[in-house]
Amino acid sequence: MERSSKYESHDLAEALVEQKMYRLAHPYIQEADDRYNDMTRKIIAAYKDTYPDAVLGRFNSMSDVVLFPVPSRCLNFCADFIVSKADDKLCDLVRKARESHWDEKDYGRMWERLDELVGISLDWT
């Protein structure tokens, strides 16, 4: 069956829609909204089921590490995005965007690569 979404998993698409619908129903989500953060964890789990080599990533980090393995339990704000696999080019683009203080061109290239890797930005409260 062909899907109209770029996401291959029905569960992943459902998790993304669930969080989007929650945001629409609750335009002013409170800080530390457990239900919303649990939805983000559900997205991570469904993504990992769909893409077994998936890794999490951070845009801003005190270390040089951009990508890291998905842990068994994700704490709030543990990651900014998830991608289908580790990718040196993405790491380089994130570092370059950081170093350029998020220059528009560097920022755009980074997001293009995230899109190529079927990346998803993760939301936390």
Question: What do these coordinates show?
Answer:
With 125 residues, the protein is of the alpha+beta class. The chain has one domain. It is built from 4 helices and 4 strands; from the N terminus they run ααβββααβ. It has a 4-stranded antiparallel β-sheet, with helices on one face. Helix 1 runs antiparallel to helix 2 and helix 3 runs antiparallel to helix 4. The relative contact order is 0.16. The model has no long low-confidence stretch (mean pLDDT 92).
Q: What labels describe this entry?
A:
alpha+beta, four-stranded antiparallel β-sheet, 125 residues, 4 strands
Q: SSE layout and pairings?
A:
Blueprint: H1 10-25, H2 34-50, E1 55-57, E2 67-69, E3 81-83, H3 88-99, H4 104-116, E4 120-121
Antiparallel strand pairs: 1-2, 1-3, 3-4
Helix pairs in contact: 1-2, 3-4
Outline:
With 125 residues, the chain is α+β, with helices and mostly antiparallel strands. It has one domain. The protein contains 4 helices and 4 strands; from the N terminus they run ααβββααβ.
Which overall shape is indicated by the principal axes computed on the Cα atoms?
Answer: globular
Number of strands: 4
Computed CA radius of gyration, to the nearest angstrom = 15 Å
Count of alpha and pi helical runs: 4
Derived structural class: alpha+beta
Strand order of the largest sheet: 2-1-3-4
Biggest sheet record: 4 strands, antiparallel
Work out the helicity level.
Answer: 40-55%
Proportion of β residues? 5-15%
Average pLDDT works out at: 92
Overall number of domains: 1
Order of helices and strands: HHEEEHHE
Parts with pLDDT < 50 across at least 5 consecutive residues? none
Taking the alpha carbons of the first and last residues, their distance comes to 35 Å
